[in-house]
Fold each of these.
Amino acid sequence: MPSKRLARVNPCSMCMPMGCVLVFRGVESCMTLFHGSQGCSTYMRLYLAHHFREPVDIASSALSEKGAVYGGAANLKQGLRNVILGYRPKAIGIATTCLAETIGDDVPQIISEFQEEEPLARDVTFIPVSTPSYAASHEVGYRVALKSLVQTMVRKSKPSGRINILVGSIVSPEDVRYLKKLLDCWGFDYILLPDISETFDAPLNEHLPRIPAGGTPLDDIRDLASSKATVTIGGLVQEPGAGYFLEKEFEIPHRPLPLPIGLDLCDRLAASLEELTGDPMPEYYERERGRLLDTMVDAHKVVAEARTAVFGDTEMVLGIARLMTELGMRPQIIATGAINRAFAEAALQMVPSSRIITGADFSEIAEEIMARDIELMVGPFTGRQTARKTKIPLLRVGLPNHDRFGASHQLLLGYEGSMRLVECMANSLIESKERRYA
Amino acid sequence: MSTIKIFEGREGHIQQKGDDCLPISCNNDSLAGVVSQRACVYSGARVVLNPLTDALHLVHGPIGCAAYTWDIRGAASSGSDLYRNSFSTDMKELDVVFGGERKLAAALRELADRFHPQAIFVYSTCIVGIIGDDIETICKRAAMELGIPVVPVKSEGFRGNKNEGYKAACNSLLGLIGTCDYTPKSRYSVNLLGEYNVAGDVWHVMPLLEEMGIDVVATLTGDARVADIQRAHTAKLNLVQCSGSMTYLAKKMEERYGIPYRRISFFGLREMASALRTTADFFESRQLKEKAEQIILRETARVMPQIECHRSRVSGKKAAIYMGGAAKAISLVRAFQELGMDVVIIGTQTGDRDDYQRIGYIVKDGTLIIDDANPLELKELLLKQSADLLVAGVKERFLAYKLGIAFCDFNHDRTINFEGFQGMANFAREIDITINSPVWRLSVKRQSPINSRSDLTVDMGVGDAIKETCQG
């Protein structure tokens, strides 16, 4: 199913290092450094600042021609030293780029040299992750960063009885806030990782810290191996990651779950948490579930048989497509920029009649859209040119969203997030119908 | 000098005007780990060439380099929108191992067939420089096969800073210039170099030049078509606006085609007037000079009332400037003088020794001058200088906001036209609405009846914000 064409026209994915930032930013007092040329960090800072509307500081080892020829060890060490001096982080995530990977720098080795040579390095945790940009998309970058983080930091200690909640896909700060509220209300002890709820959506107050406050505490990450179970939310179609590692190395049972979007997938998360905790879902959320169902019933005729195109990150796309089928909508195109066979299989099972594209770009998505009489597009803002050309409404969800407000506050997960999505889709369809007959 | 110090090795990059010290350190590699605001060689080349509307811009590299630069420049087009697409060879692991040449050659064929561009630019990225794909030969062959210019851009990211990218882009443009014939429609003909038509800027300048009787042969590269570039050698004069990116090209064109150049700026009333006068003076035509004066008088009279109104609301405020290139930064200093504002910080990513000398000359004593800044330094400087406003790009916007400082986007993704006479009025309004927004007067800390120790004043309303607004 991946495209036969050689050139990508208008990409529907980003590169691996991008995913790392989303993980490291969700860790307490953690800075990201890209081992590569200066442009990589600047471009990704720009991209994420546009999306989250927050300052985004990402350091670079600023490799130049000399570094590319003789190796980047000196630059990397100087970079780490400056990050420690400037930002005083407790942890630094070091992601490679295609340049560093191709010149063959041994990053873990350089880090251990640095730790021996540099007294400043003593109290800092270093998390190396290999993310050659040409190897895979930002989603894979996110997952390998999460896995490296866990691999580097966990240590066995006495059982805590907690539950690990790994956020396995890129979601919004609002989504993470929602999950935390849900888990708090449920009333069990958990470790949620990574936690971008504050770090990518900081309140405006008097002091601007060098590293945004919040993130998963480092001690919690070290303790992940003491928990009684792991749930990866948004880990349905992903290759083995942090959760599998904890299962294999520390025998902590792992449940990879889809993102809770739509009634059924939200129920699946609820059922898993009930099984793991032995406690029923709080009444508050039973009522929220009822409101989602009520909204779906209210909207069913407006959205019935609507022909849609969903695109973007794998897990998000699958969740949205699922909600659409629950409503009687007809997803015609289910596309992702990632190359992921499990995604294609899951999508096919869900909507056998739809056109499923992996490794998609927007020229391909646009062609399919024009051939299929689509009424609604749902996905990142990168679909905007297609939307403008075809005059099809685009409901912006996920990363990136550079041209509308609210990316940080967009709730997609849970009964409440699903309810908002139902309402947005219904309103979009109503508005475009009104425009047509105006 | 009483200034801030955060990183060792950055001392020479920050100075205060009035200090008796060595020339500022600039135009060298960024220090690792300090979070420089600069990008890479590729980015420099890409921003210069991307506004060429009917060209296909193919990035030979992994997907990221193309993804992050897709339609990022707010350069507007009056024709084709091909340049607003993002094309990539999407190099994968196998391409890195076995070389990307065959994939590139096939991709060129495929894209030419699908999109029928007037020319193709092929940008090399970091990885291409390392694995050593021979882009030049492939481009040469493709040009013969496809019958259109296929121009290599030597923009491997790590080979320097943005300045190297500008140079690479200029060299690519030089490959196109002089390949088509043209007779200008007027005795007075010019090219506009370093004008990128951000937010449609050039459409507020071009009509004035045309009204004077001047033929603008080519704009490099805002709203330009490939054919315009190819005939650019036929103009009599090059007007260079963004000097950082295009002085190199202007010098080359002078060498090759004997076209002299003049540095001008279309931003700010005085600068705009001086650009028209410089052009008229160059052609030594009485008629042009008279026409220029007429236009200046008429347009100034038209926009002055609005600018005066905004000026009365912003004069005396303190501005900080952090720009990519020095030309814009210098124009901004003059524009702030026109608004009665003080510049307290000025910096650039890629200024050179000459640029900083010019900057040092026009700013007041006490102004901080900074080269290749980073967020930590910017934060300290903004607070130390008590700036009311920062003019910069998106990366700096949220830093300013978090510090409670007004902000104006003067970068390539702004959406409001700032050039020409009307542009200055737009700029004045932009500065006014951000500096005088009531949001800055809302209290950051809520006064609580429980915690009465709070010594913050209660701000019950937006009081003095309810002034008359200026008529647009």
Amino acid sequence: MSAVPALGAERRLVEAASRLALPVALVAVFLLFSALAPGFLAAANLQSVLVNNFTLLSIVAVAMTFAVSAGGIDLSVGTAVDFASFAFVSLVLAGQPVPLALAAGLGGGAVVGLFNAVLIAGIGISPFLATLGTLFIGRSVQQLLTNGGNPVYLPPAGVPESFHLLGRGSLAGLPVPLLIAALVIALAAVILARSRFGRVVTAVGIEAEVVRYSGLPLKAHLAATYVLVALIAAVAGLVLTSTVTVYIPNSGNAFLLNAIGAAFIGTTLHRHGRPNIAGTVLGVLLLSLVANGLLMSGLNFYWQQVGTGLLIFTVLALSFASRKV
Amino acid sequence: MIQQSTQPIIHFQGIEKSFGGAKALSDVSLTVHRGTVHGLVGQNGAGKSTLIKLLAGLHRPDAGQVEIDGEAYDHLTPHLVESLGIHFIHQDRLLVPSFTVGEALFLGREPRIPGTPFLDRRQMQRRAQEVLQRYFGLSLPNSALISQLSTAEKQIVQITRALLDRPKILVFDEPTAALVKREADLLFTLIRRLRDEGITILYISHYLQEIEALCDVVTVLRNGRHVATKPIAETSAAEIAGLMVNRDIGDLFPIREKSPGAALLTVEGLSATGRYRNVGFTLYRGEVLGLTGLLGSGAKDVLRTLFGLETAEEGTVTVAEQAPWRASPVQAARRKLALVPEDRRRHGVALDLSVSENTTLASLPRFTRLGLVDRASEAAEADRLITRLQIKTAGREALLRTLSGGNQQKVAIAKWLSRHSDIYLLDEPTVGVDIAAKVEIYALIAELAEKGAGIIVLSSDLPELIGLTDRILIFFRGEIAREVVSDTITEDALLAEVTGSSEATRYVG
Amino acid sequence: MLVDTALLVPASARADTPSPQKTTVSQGLAGIALRGGALAVFVTVFVLFAFASPIFLTPFNLGNILAQSAISGVLAIGLTVVIIAGGGNVVSGGIDLSLAANMGLSAAVYAALSQAGQVDGVAVLAALGTGLAIGAVNALAVTWARIVPLLATLAVMNVVGGLELVLTQNTVIPAITPLLESLSGSGPFGIPALAYVLLGFALITAVVVQATPLGLRLYAVGEFPEAARASGLALKRFIAGSFLFSGLSGGIAGILSAAYLSGSTTGAGELLLPVVVTALLGQVFSRRLVPTITGTLLSALFVGVLINGFQLLNLSSTLVSGIQGLLILLVVSATTLLRPKEG
């Protein structure tokens, strides 16, 4: 309450330092690999970091950020990725036009989101358990749809050219997947930080009861959040499918843990420790750079995961330890 | 000073304590004698709970010292307090819900099967049965879980837990607030027996009849000062009430033109089983209407029902001339109702949102263009309300957490001013609010009423009710027992109505 | 049955209480129904399989189910202890996401040392030490650095999973040692040795958790920290201890998996979410609907029976995860809907 001024200043300094953990780590990693790994700095390599490592994870992590903002988590983001991919591939395979198939893909993701919305907003199950259940049910559903988990390949000949646009196209010299990621990030940043919806979602995450006591529809916001999360994740599914021209059942789960990690690392960037899109994106960038840098520096391929894990751990430890009261 | 045959066991000497400039205790000196039941009474904010928290080692006095058993301490710590044999029976019962009674009683000092590291469940059960039977004549099934017990039974388990430690001093903080009469009587019998066994009891209560019936000595606190300590034989409930009542608070309340206008809110035949029955009243424009009653009297449930947080089984609520409606908080806010809830920190404001974000939370549509929050107009609104309500903050971007309780409360009200609400439901609006902010909040309420809003104040702070409101509805056993005009009732009389002592009965629940 | 409302005073004198009794009674009944329902489902499934497949009820097959459940069972029991001490809120309370990766690394350490010619004793100690060390890192991260368990163990999971890849180069390291041979062989009555390990581990843990003061205190720490603190318990020690124990479980599971698969293999992380679900599902098999060791064991066996039965009937075992998911949602919905509304 009545802290000595010097102490207050010190405290502010510590707080500022904890916010800097992520940007400093990013710069340090960048400099380190520039020195250690020949070829890391090459434009071609950096572009490959963005296209191969960054794009899909950033979209999924942005989706996750909305769930975390609302005070929850979504373990079934990968399921939304998969369902979108399955719907997209199935319709293309059935000879439907690509735009319709894309819409169906978004619809596939939305199904997962609606299911979560019913569980979380309707019944009141905690998001962790609800989305864990969705994840498990989603697994079986996918395996049933694919005769026990067989990939659905698209015949190279029969696929319309427009199918590849999302994953492999380029516009004005820039790869389309990257443009899509940029668009998703920009829209998400505006929605979360500037829109009325984003404001209420943030308030829900901080103190859900205050939202209800303020005469705002709490359940509607919770439901909309989880549908939005699934829709954004579905975009990642569409880009992924367009790149690899195959639907592999239960492959979306690969993004889950890194997306959670990035969203939480990102909170260290915010003045009040709130989930935020910029932080999430920097978190994804950090993870992508480390993965690529370790690869380029000729270190054993498998050290990547150790490095990533240690880095997440350090950033979290620094930021949590400095928040001690 | 009262002479007592026994020696002192607790002695507070010149205790001072302030919170952020507001004095909670000033120069309190007080002696509790061994083997007595010592009552501690005072209105909300009189300093009772601060004094108890000092004794529990949860607060540190700014000045003065505490002597326990002849040993003087500048301040106490929870650990020290426990080693001195002082135990607290709190209102919130610290018992693990999924435990059996035996497990809850013996947690932390579990009996083991001799010669093994294993829990002796049989002994736990037997001893639990034994002590509960001995102290309370209470028999609980061995398999009963804490979560299945009634409030009274939980209370008893907690007292029994404290007794197992062979305490020297037991502090009861409003122990009967959730008990029915028979249960309370059992508790009193027990307390007397404990006293006869040499245990000193410090007993805090709102119910003067209890104090009169149970205590040997009573101490009255008022506005953080020690007003009197008297043997119960030399005083009466009426005299104690007189001592509790604050005579010099009158000028806190603004003088207001009391001229109610058209009907704003009409409640008819509102009933909900076990909570309230056949409640009906009308709130007029420009009126400040008081509600009061003991815990469980139904007043709070009615207020929550108006805002749609609870549902009534029968009856109608009509706002202005619109059709009767079934409320939800969303609907209530749309009909220009505003609730400032009692639990400010969980329901009223979000401590980790900024002043600005809290202020506009209920009125965001006004600051939204094409779905986006217009930050400039939002900031202007926040600044306007900060100035208007004299909210003391480092700025509109400061987190609510950094504000004092009184200023947090102003933000909780500002939220609804921003929504241009018409009907304000204020639930204990000045609990935990320092005196300066209190005066400002009272002035604001008066101003709102003069501008034509209707205001309902639910409060257990009786001077506040009398000074602030036009009429008071007194709830008793779920019904409106009486309606009084605020100007015509004294605090003593109101206290008697609220506690039901005018009917010579006691109801709590 | 459990609740006698007329405990303290005659019912007539209570007439004026706004009674919370009704809800607790119906809750208690619902709890019993839920638990009974879970057991009934288990028994029904068991009986159905017994009728559908002649092999199902043979001692050999039942032993197989136990052996197949051993690894996930040990892990789920370790996780259960963390959940007991950390409380039921999965995000802020007890969770250990590093368990499956821990098992993978411990198995790899064991296999690598055996292959390098170390004797069983050294390899076993190293594997258990690996598990304990991982547990210690989690414990420090949660109690000292105050990182929420979900994130702390997530980061540790990444590191541990990576270390396993570094050690194994993402290949299978075969290991055949006397210990592994006896573990993968049969014990008394022709029942697999792994089955005995699972039952033994469950029994010891159950005794400690369910029958000692330590266990009782773990529950208090997890369910109501303020009450535990008021009883003079040092919360952090219990929480740290629970992570050490789950780390050790990971080490033990590592040795078991090396025995079951004759070496270390990749993909241990796949086991994580099934283990989490098994531990959470275990709560339905307990009287008070809290996590218990016996409940988790039953839940692990239930999953084992499902997988085994589907295999015997030539049905796709892919349904198992869906059934687990549905069950967990049903259980949690039921408990959520039965919980009295916050007032």
Amino acid sequence: MIDRTARPALPAFAPDAAFRAKLANLSLVSQRPHGHLHTGGRRSRATGSSLEFADHRSYSPGDDYRQIDWNIYARTDELFVKVRESEETLVVHLLLDVSGSMASGAPAKFETARAVLAAIGWTALASRDVVAGAALGVGLGETFAPRQGEGYLGRFLEFLWRQQADGTTGLSRAVAAYNARALPHGVAVLVSDLLAEDAPRAIGALAQRGHELTVLHVLDDEFANPAFADEVELIDAEGGSSLEVLGDVDLLRAYRQAIGDWTSDLQRFCHRRHVRYVPIRSNWAVEDIVLRRLREHGTLA
Amino acid sequence: MSWAAPLAFAWAGLTVAVLAFFLLRPRRQRVVVASLLIWRRTIHARAEDTWLAWLRRHALLLLQLLAVVVFALALARPERLAMVEPGSPVALVVDVSASMAITDRDGTPRIQRARDEAAALVHAVGDDRRISVITAGAVPRTLVAQTTDRAAVTRALGGIEPEASHGRIDAALDMARSLADPAAGGIVALFTDTESTGSSQPAFAGVRTVVVGEPAPNVALVSFQVRRRLDTPDVVQGVVAARNDGSTDTTAAIAVTAGRGTTLSRTLDLPAGDREILVFDELPVAPGYQAEVRAPDDGLPTDNLAFASLAEPSGLSVMVVGNEPWPIVRALQAVPAVTAQAISVEAFDQDASTADLYVFQGFAPEILPPASSVLVQPPAMPALEIDAPSTGDVRPLALADSPLLRSVDVGDLLSGADVNYAPPPWALVDLSVGDRALLAHGVVYGRRIAVVGFDMAGPRVSQAPWFPVFWANVVRWADPFAPLPEGVTLEPGRPARLIPHPRADRITVSSPAGDTTEFSRLQPAVLDVQTPGAYTVRQFVGQELVAQTSIDFAPGVAAPTGRIGVPVGSVSTPESTQRIQQQTDVWPWIAGLALALLVVEWWIFHRVRGVR
């Protein structure tokens, strides 16, 4: 059931010291290079201009004189240049579904979703990753411009807590608009209930953009296991459309079966596109989701 | 299939109420959900067949409507015709004579005991038996005939009450035998208090007699007559016959009262079952006489009274109009108190004649005189619907209990000069030849008319020994001053039609209780016997009293007796193998179906729909 009157209080995300310490030791897993050789917080397969020494090689004309290792030259009279490792900057895209359906559940799916994103954003910023964010509603909502460094954590949290779950869902349209911003691809985390016919298309678009995508599929227990008797008129939280159903045992059993089929289809869809599919419930603890589920699925390490 | 109560289909109108309750039911609960996406998929996958989905949604409503309709069907009491093999028929004959009103020493009326015994027999026999209930009163009546409806039998038995009359058990048993012939496997059971109904009599052959009542003393007046003494006409002689119907000897006191004055009493020893006659010689002349018998602990006082009046000669004048009147005149002159004269057809002057009875021989006047008439071989009379006479030599068939043929040997009637007529619609045929009447009598235009087809002048008839008897019968029946014609049976509770004198314009009937009912000329006069006693009928022409008749209604007698008979529980008879069509109730099955529907509705509501 949706309580639209509930508004989160700022700051809503206040992890305790132990959780913060654990978050500080985590980082987002990127299994392939994304080619952004800016100064970042993580090593790259490419060599670059960082402080980390990688190897020596013979001097060739055109090499940077500043990289000549004069100590070796003094011992061997040959010119060698120092080869240093390049440090890659990972762009982390944190995408939050802000459609009206996210407001349902106890606690609301929306609250759990942005708490999880806050924790991931914290981890990313602490790891000197570039964090970009966007609210996905009927279209592309407010965005959080790519920022790097822990100093932007506050702004990121403010960005998250400014969002409200309201309106209809236009997930694929919003993703298309986000992709059009030409941000570097990287690791993307989408937190959504995926209650839209075009949710698979949106997931496919993000994966095709080159992101290492993790979909956090958040559902609430009331939605997954409804319990009511007699005839009821179901009102759609987003569109206001209604549906009269007779809450008999057979129908509820069929509904639960449909939920299972739906999530299985989504899981298979994600697996085919190398997208991590992480089903979560809104009433699960954020620590459990971040420290256990996301680590089990390889999103965090 | 037929319907015993089709009006009950109106109950199906309750379906409107059910629909109204459905439409006016509280609005369904509204539940806001995150999305209808999965719900629509579920409904779509589940409701490929829309009518099935509709049925599932409205299952309770449909069950309720169906239950109401089925209940209405049940209330309409559907019946179906089925071929069944019935059990042998049973006829219950209940004696309703006056003695059945006796309450025995244990406080139970005999009629109640008879009803209980009959009901016990009904319960003892199988449900497939067709049962008839017959009352043996003055007129035997069939209350229910060959029915398997036990409720109807119980109602019939419960409604049986004793009558203030004798019981014609023989006639009732004849009726019962026609409904349940013991020779064909039927059962005839008689419930009576009369010990004399032994199985040795032919009428009781095969009848199972259940005697109710205890031995009780009962004396009854059998007959009471008065007449003037021949030697001293101013003195009246009364003859009283009394009988002891009880099982013990007793001494009875018999009193005869003349009018409202003189009372003579005698004491009489009456052994059990004996009958004695007493003669009271010194009674004065009075308008009416009453005889009463008394005995200690008499169980049935209603048969202790009798009434009589002097049968004064009415001085009936008879005119015989014809060409050969003398044989008839001579016969009429032999009838006491009858003055007969003959006149030829040519000399007959209707306006100048004032006879009480006319005999028209081979002749019919244009207008019937205001008197009774006997038409001997009349020509065609369209006004009386008498056709032209024809002849025939078929052997005649006589009506039993014909008042005109009492003590007459009809075998002597035939002669070559007999003629017959088509029976007039107003007449009762006394003697018929084929489909035509040789002798008939009836009342038409307020007159008693007899039509005689046989030759009254021929020597074979006029010299027959029964010839004066026949005319005496005719005079007795045609006496216009007697309001109750011969042959009319007077029964309690059944009004008898009185035939006033053709000239009477007013008639009154006084009951023993003193009530008087007056009938005008235009009203049909009836005598309704409700209580035993003497009824007085007076006829007036203007203010002149032209006739006064005392009609004594004396109740019959019946004897209290001891209990004999057969135990009803041991009745067994061979079954009939004849199959008959019988109405079978179907409504209990339909009512059961309706209840089952309600149970299913309840189960669905509480067990299937609910997610508690």
Amino acid sequence: MIELDCLGQRCPLPVIALARRIRDVAIGEVVRVLADDPAAANDIPAWCRMKQQEYLGSPEADAFEVRRLS
Amino acid sequence: MGVPAGAAAYLDAASAVPLHPVAAEALVAALADGWADPARLYSASRRAQQLREAAQAVFAEALGVRVDEVSLWPSGTAAAQAAVLGGLAGRARRGDTLVHSAIEHSAVLHAAARADAVSVGVDRAGRLDLAEWDRAVSAPGVALAGLISASHEVGTVQPVAAAAAHCAAAGVPLFVDAAQSVGRVPVPPGWSMLSASAHKWGGPPGVGVLVVRKGLRWISPYPQDDLYRPGVPGAVDLPAVVAAAAALRAVLGTAQAEAVRLSALVDRIRDRVAATVPDVEVVGDPVERLPHLVTFSCLYVDGEALLHALDRQGFAVSSGSSCTASTLRPSHVLEAMGVLSHGNVRVSLHHGTTAEEVERFLTVLPGMVENLRREAGM
């Protein structure tokens, strides 16, 4: 699992970071995004739906996990 | 003579429609003839009173209610908040819970914060969850329910008739915020209170209309005047009210044809944006929607930057993205639907919108989005 520290970044920057860096992990691997922008909790799951990736949830505050499916 | 919209292509009718030419004429005439206090006994006062009664009759006829059920407020927001607060106060013996949809206008949500509020969710298309609504209004202690007639952010028309039936079965009065519908599309019956806003139909800003049906106990949230009439204390802006009524009468005369014309332009926008902009989500129900409003979100795009880029080309649109909001929070409507909130654009059309303006917008948009994505490293 890789972790992206996007704390302090405004949306869409955390989603852009996720889209760029998820290419660096193998299919089936997990990326954890740390983001405290209020839009991240909405936009990271929406990105997963639009780009056919799996949103695994928010295991803790300001952290969001995504599994690469494609 | 109409008043120019101020921008080369003004596409934010859901915020305010440019003043209808008929309203501009009526406003000038009423400034000369409707300045007196309607409550006095001299002839200038009687003229003002006649203008006020004629305007109220227009609103009553348009909304299918009695003239004495109509009251005038300084804005649609004031009317909506008076509905919520007055409805809750009048029903305090029944409870203090307000049930509302998660996609109400923020004006209603701010008023709801004064009550024990229960929010009912919507689906991905932005339509009310009727089963959850039924459970919520049937619970004990519910004083009032509030439902927007159609989403002001994504255009999805709400199931007002079905929601009203659940309210009736539970003995709960329903308030409908009809700001985006009045003057454009009919609002189904079954409600006890309804609010509307003149600058959404081509009237001047600063006129709100509230209907409180007979039989509903409504207690003003404000101190009352000597006449004990429902309404805001103090003088109303009568020339603006006269102009608002003139505009409403004018737009209702052409509403059906305008709805067909604008709905075709919205279909064109929905189709072309989806076809020409990669990674875009056109949100809201494609069919059960307002005729004049369409919203989409572009992945990896800063909504504020896109609004500024469009403004430089002369296009006025609005956005539900957090970076464009004074609160720096994403739109509660987009959140409730679970759709992308960044890179969000709302386009809303009006009587002055032309097919050429829409085509020009559709021509420049893909390149702008592409540029912003490239600048962001995507």
